[in-house]
Amino acid sequence: MDTQMTETLEAIYDRCVANEDNIITVLQEIQKEFGYIQEKVVLWFAERSNIPASKFYGVVTFYSQFHQNPRGKNIVTVCCGTVCHVKGASRIISKIHEDLKLKEGQKTTKDMKFTLERVNCVGACSIAPVVLVNEKVLGKVTPSKMVKSLKAYKD
Amino acid sequence: MLNLNIDGKDVAVASGTTVLEALRLAGLEVPTLCHDERLKPFGACRLCIVEIAGMPKPVTSCTTPATDGMVVKTNSERLYRLRKTTVELLLSDHPNDCMVCGSSGDCTLQELAYLYGIRENRFLGEVREHSRTDHNPFIIRDQNKCVMCGLCVRVCDEVQGVGAIGFSERGFEAKVIPPFGHDLDCEFCGQCVSVCPTGALAGSLWAGKPRSGGVVKTDTTCTYCGCGCNITLSSHGDKVIRIDSVADNHNRGWLCVKGRFGYEFINSNERLTTPLIRKKKGGEFEKATWDEALSFVAEKLSAIKEKHGADSVAGLCSARCTNEENYLFQKLFRVGFGTNNIDHCARY
Amino acid sequence: MNSEIVVSVCMGTGGIAAGGDMVMQAFEKEFEEAGVSNAIVKEHTRLHKVGCRGFCARDVLVDISVGGIISTYQYIQADMVNRLVKDHCIGKRPVTEWMVGDDYHNFHDSQTKIVLHDLGKIDPESIDEYIRVDGYKAAEKALTTLSPAEVIDTVKRSGLRGRGGGGFPTGVKWGFCAANESDQYYIICNADEGDPGAFMDRSVVEGNPHAVLEGMIIGAYAIGASIGYVYIRAEYPLAVERLHMAIKDANERGFLGKNLFGSDFNLKIKVKLGAGAFVCGEETALIASIEGERGMPRAKPPFPANKGLWSKPTIINNVETLANLPHILNKGAEWFAAIGSEKSKGTKVIALTGKIRNTGLIEIPMGMPLKDIIFDIGGGIEGDKLFKAVQTGGPSGGCIPQQHIDLPVHYEGLASVGSMMGSGGMVVLDETDCMVNISKFFLEFTQSESCGKCVPCRLGTKRLLEILTRITEGEGKEGDIELLQELAEDVRDSSLCGLGMSAPNPVLSTIKYFRHEYEAHIKQKKCPAKVCSKLLTFFIREDMCVGCGMCVRACSVNAITGEKKQPHKINNTLCIQCGSCFDACKFSAVLKE
Amino acid sequence: MAGLAAKFGSGAMTNSVAEIADNDALFVIGSNTTENHPIIALRMKEAVAKGAKLIVADPRKIPLVKYATLWLRHKPGTDSVLLNSIMKAILAEGLEDKTFINEQTQGYEEFVQSLDPFTPEYAEEMTGVPAKDIIEAARIFAAAENAGIYYAMGITQHVMGTNNVLAVGNLAMLTGNLGKRACGVNPLRGQNNVQGACDMGGLPNVYPGYQKVDVPAVQEKFEKAWGVPLSGKIGMPATVMTGAMLEGSLKGMYIFGENPAMSDPNTTHSVKAFESLEFLVVQDIFMTETAQLADVVLPGASFAEKEGTFTSSERRIQRVRKAINSPGQARSDLAIIDQLYKRITGQGDLEIAADPVAIFDEIAGLWAGVAGMSYGRLEKNSLQWPCLTEDHPGTEYLFKDGFNTESGKAIFSQVPYVASKELPDKEYPFVLTTGRQLFHYHTGTMTRRSSGLNKVAPEPFVEVNPADAKILGVNNGEKLTVTSRRGQIKLKAKVSKIVPPNVVFIPFHYSEAAANLLTNDAMDPVCKIMEAKVCAVKIEKR
Predict the structure, then answer these.
(1) What is the CATH number of the domain that holds D16?
(2) Among B123, C538, D194, D423, which is least packed, fewest CB within 10 Å?
(3) How many structural domains does chain D have?
(4) Of D170, D188, D206, which marks where a domain is finished?
(5) Do residue A106 and residue A141 come from a single domain?
């Protein structure tokens, strides 16, 4: 761990101590800073805070917001709420898999351009099925529209 | 005092008592898998459920505070069915290998399966497969056998204050594991092993050793530090094969790594097995009979005393041997040689 | 004469998703350009962002008010703004063909709006606008003229029940909490809306965050809490942002912080972001999460009102419950109690979605028949398909069939048919939806969201899901329905928390009302709704196929053959029933059976 | 031991282990409890979990620091200064327990005067602990309803070890933390039966039950009981024996179940002493470093092979039971000693085996503290002494009804500052402190023969602060040579912030790099304990 990283972590630590934040907030801050949760960062924090690493690890693996691996440049999030489900979310997912050449269980493309994720419900049911590409919300998506939308992010 | 009626029996308990404690005070019993009196109630296994008048659903007796006037039922067809389903569900995700499991005969799950007569399982399906082996010298972690009772996690956190293992993931994937799935790296107190209700956590030292036939248990006191922990030695023939400690002693069943796992020296082949005499200074040790050795010692020490006076001999007694031995030893010097030159190494 | 021009653009998540921010930008640009030559536009234009007004299906919705006369436009996109500014704002000639029609008004007129009353009308980012509609009056009244006990009494008399799902009387819960001796009490606003198909709380926080804060102040005062938390999903960035803004503004005005409204009452409100776990909607799991733990529920009793956050008495109220409070305090318990049914007072906000024409956010008086919601407000089934069922209460709820279409929608009504109010999600299903599949969908959800702590939920939902999966894949066995029922009942009765207790509801209610669909899957190996692909045979209708080859390209197992411009054929021994060809065909020539 | 005995009339733990959990404040000084008394440490953790405040005073960042409210990192050898300054601060804030002082102590005025120099500022300079932390410690400790002090060899293994113990006792007296539940002065015993060995008269100045050999009435009592005339002359303590051996006045020795050739400070010296003996008998279960020097080695039995009793740190007498037979011809130590006793005294029948029950009854007849105990009672439950009569339940905590001194009052002592014998200088710039680690025990006789323990903690190491490591140019795991005026060992560096700069730590379990080759055999003038905790060393990378 280099000095700069240690300084960043030290700053997060101080801020969180000052705010009486909990592990979840700490991890949210770490993820905001580094994009994902690295083992060495957790171990650093565990040592620093006298909180066992197992508690951090338990939280990281419990909440779907936390990622343990680097994610792609673009995050494609498919809403899997009830309405999106009945309106064909699963077919959109398989289309994206095919289009991004993702193998089963694989979430991020080899070139690190895309990461495919699912979310329970983004609450935009009236325009289901819904897909988010980064912050942008796409409504009434079909498999073929999806492929077209992704094209713009490929280069 | 709170007055309860449990299965028709009137019971008076102190406030702050849980329903489980109350029913046990009344001499009744319900099955439990995730409960340990020494730990905070958890309410995960759902086996200790009882019906309480006025409550719509069964509640876990371990987590429910007793209240005045409570009417409790510990057994009914409904409770029996729910408990049986729970056990059956647990077995549906458990390797069926009691024959080769070190905990066979000492396994709560096995006992429950027997109690509910579960021969066939309605719920067979996917079984978790954690094929990873943990490389540590003391504790075998067989996660396939974990029932997620959380006793190990809680004892490690609440009692030992270490937190070497924790829950991770959720749903069917939920498991108990050291952070990031590494090998266990902890104080190896084995508290987790002692509370595990199945064979998910077991001592490496007693793996493959006799489980019950020919095993003799002896209650005694630990030989290491001054904490004076009560232990139970399991021996087979003249070999010590396992050390445990029961929950209701003054150390509450807790031991440290040395106390629980540091007993191999007893069976070491480096043990001294015969008296040795060095006939002249600088010579080699030679094996001797007891009679030779004892007479030799008695003669030599007595001769020194005779020649140089009582205070030319001294004894160091042992902070690791028994009171009776130490008593007799100092008496030997005081009576036998007439000297008070006796001390021991307690100072180091 | 009022020469003001006010433009309000719907900027809730729905509105933004439909292009609201682009529309907003377009208005800014157009006004700036027009303002150069037009003094009125330059000086008298106000551009507003407003929260969701409910009819999300018609987004982007824009109100243009010129001289006090309001016109509402629907389906507005950025490229339409130029004309709206030129014709309506400057030329005073409304663009009638883009305006909403009668159905829009019908949608609204059948509703009774309390919580949603100001949504879509006020700018959620402006505390002044909230104050303009009597904001913070109720809190002031409570803190300066009423005792905590009187506040609790008022809420008790109003009959308000928790809108988060349980329906427990709010005032009674407060009373339990306040009765504890403690050095610290907490109030928590549960905005961790996790039900798929629900977006009530998000819309309210996005559209009127101050109402939620005001509700919290009233609740906090009633129980004596000096610290409050809003636990909100991180997936709701807009709501989080507006909430932070609202807290900051309220602090600055002295509505939060020390000595509220000149009283000696203090309240600090903190925002905690949920990190993506449905189970954290459950009170005790939510508490664990605020404490920084895995969101694993704790057994009740003891209830949070007695031993909650950090073992101190804690009240957890849902967003909608809190947003009702200012109105109750302002207008009185009797006013509120007069709305709704005998046991369920007031209104309920509902996210009306699914296979229905008018989807969106609505608010109805408790007790309105299901039929009115679906066919009047909702405008009936999309594409003239047949109504099959309505799923209420999310993964914890059940499916209500046609036969109960007259059911009054309130806590008791929904419970009487094996469903529940839940947080208020209502997903309408039509004839093309397979009920076994729906049931499996919810079990997939609950299984993956189960915290893994208790046995019945962790393993029970897994086994339920496995049985449902095998049924939808044609592997169902005689006795599976009974096994499902037995296991579902046991999971329901012995799980630790609400998630596990209610997870079997979708299974039980679909078996109850749609047993024949299960039987068809098991006995005939058919999916009547033609959803379960493993049970379908795909074939191509020769008369419809133009031989374009789209299906050939879509097929990943090379099961489709045919010459160009000639009808194609599917080799059913190769086909894996993935449905790709069905999706790919633009001529509806691929059929499934 | 001697320190507490002088003040209170008894030198054992005043309270019980179970009471620790009910402490409101705990002051742990010179005890690495989690590693040396893991199960006692559990009670400390429990107390902390229940809200108790924990003060840890230790130069090393021992694991217990993790649970501490306040950690005082004082320089090795400055314990009494630290303790005195805390008491000075208590007085400055008027937090002393005046009632207790008035009613149950003597020597208060002189004691208060003796504290004069120990201002927090002076202490800061001497100990390195910030003055504000000293005041904070004073407040925490004095404010607690029930406060307990826990210490071990970190306090006693110094030239001023007795002084340190006296200071600890003063602190408890000053705050009235004696004679009631969940407080007190608690020396933690390092070995399973240290308490018992002392109780049984394994000391040169007392018979069993701390009855003084130089008091004629006592001598008479034992002469009568044992039927022979006894010596009224106080014997040699172990540390003095070394000199006597070298000088030739001590010629024959019998050692059982101890390994002084490795546990003694400056072992080169003591090995030489053992070698100069005319006759040495060692009785043990392994060929220890000491046994290798013997003329006769007698194979004894492990604890699993014998019947008897142990007395734990909390004065608890418990049964030891035989589970297995000893290997080969090894015999129970009791049988061996009995045989020698009979041969040397000429009394008794060699054919009759020694009976622990009879011996215990003999003890109970001679020491009132265990008069109420018998194997019959111990079979069911362990008992804590004093247990005076057959229906006495044993004693949870001491001094409930006053102290065992002549006046019945506890005696305040004046504790001046005494420096460690050997402080670092130019040639030997580091302070070496020694101790145990969790996975091993004492000289490793047992633990190094347990494969699992030896796998987790396989080799000796020297803890070096990263700052020192940088100066020495040494990385974690590299070999270092550590030299003192008495010896030299080579072992791996463990670069760690556990030790402060200029201090190094070496566990003494490893014969391949025996820490006691380095340590100083200077000793406390009263207790004759050697100064294992502080000596000067130099460190070189090679």
Answers:
(1) 3.40.228.10
(2) D423
(3) 3
(4) D188
(5) yes
Flag if B81 and C450 touch (Cβ within 8 Å). Answer: no
Q: How far is CA B221 from the centre of its chain?
A: 13
- Is residue A148 domain-resident? yes
The answer to whether C454 faces chain B, any CB pair under 8 Å, is yes
Cβ atoms C593, C536 nearer than 8 A: yes
B33 to each of A128, B189, C168, how far by Cα in Å? 45, 22, 32
Kindly provide the ipTM of the predicted complex, given to two decimals.
Answer: 0.91
Cβ contact A82:C441 at 8 Å: yes
pLDDT digits (tens, 9 = 90+) for D400-457: 888 888 888 889 999 988 888 888 999 999 999 998 999 999 888 889 988 899 999 9
Facing residue for B92 by CB, picked from C448, C463, C494:
C463
What is the interface size between A and B, counted as CB pairs within 8 Å?
40
Chains within contact range of chain B (3+ C-beta pairs < 8 Å): A, C, D
**Nearest to C379, CA basis, from C101, C97, C9:** C101
Question: What span, in angstroms and rounded, lies between the C-alpha atoms of A89 and A128?
Answer: 9
Nearest CA in chain A to B157: A52
Residue in D450, D356, D260, C138 with CA at minimum distance from that of residue B325: D356
Parallel, antiparallel, or unpaired for β C387-392 and C398-401?
Answer: antiparallel
Cα→Cα distances C286→B16, B223, C196, C275, C291, Å = 25, 48, 18, 11, 9
**Chain A residue whose CA is closest to B164:** A54
Touching subunits for chain A (3+ Cβ pairs under 8 A): B, C
Q: D294: closest CA among D283, D309, D307?
A: D283
Alpha-helix residue ranges (DSSP H) falling in C480-570: 480-494, 498-502, 505-519, 550-554
- CA-CA distance, B170 to A67, in Å (whole number)? 15
What's the number of CA atoms in the CB half-sphere (13 Å) around residue D234?
11
Which candidate in B189, B194, B225 is best for mutational testing of the D interface (most D CBs within 10 A)?
Answer: B225
List, run by run, the mean pLDDT of 10-residue segments along chain C (593 residues): 77 80 89 79 80 82 87 91 89 89 84 89 90 93 94 95 88 95 95 85 92 96 96 88 95 93 93 90 93 92 92 95 95 94 92 89 93 92 91 89 94 90 89 93 92 95 96 94 96 94 94 96 93 88 88 86 88 85 86 84
Which pair of tokens denotes residue C72? 């509402």
Q: How many other C-beta atoms lie within 10 A of the C-beta of residue B100?
A: 9
Q: Dihedrals φ, ψ of D319, to 5°?
A: -80, 140
C-alpha C220/C-alpha C309 separation (Å) is 14
Contacts of A29 in chain C (CB under 8 A): none
> Which residue on chain C is closest to A58 by alpha carbon?
C294
Q: Residue C454: its chain B contacts at CB < 8 A?
A: 43-46
| Of B74-78, D186-190, D526-530, the least confident | D526-530
Listed range (A117-121, B317-321, B337-341, D340-344) with the worst mean pLDDT? A117-121
- Residue D339 domain boundaries: 194-384
Q: Is residue A67, in this structure, part of any structural domain at all?
A: no
For residues D170 and D64, membership in a common domain is answered with yes
Read off the pLDDT band of A154 (50, 70, 90). confident
Q: Which of B162, B164, B166 sits opposite A58 (nearest CB)?
A: B166
Query: pLDDT value at position D2?
Result: 62
What's the rounded Cα separation, in Å, for the pair D62 and C97? 79
Residue count of chain A, please give it: 155
Helix (H, G, I), strand (E, B) or coil at D473: coil
Instruction: Show residues of chain B in contact with C294, CB under 8 Å.
Output: 167, 170
Helix (H, G, I), strand (E, B) or coil at B246: coil
The pLDDT value recorded for residue C48 is 81
> Structural domain of residue A44, as residue ranges?
3-62
Q: Is D407 within a domain?
A: no
At D92, which helix (H) or strand (E)? helix D79-92
Token digits of residue B8 = 């028709």
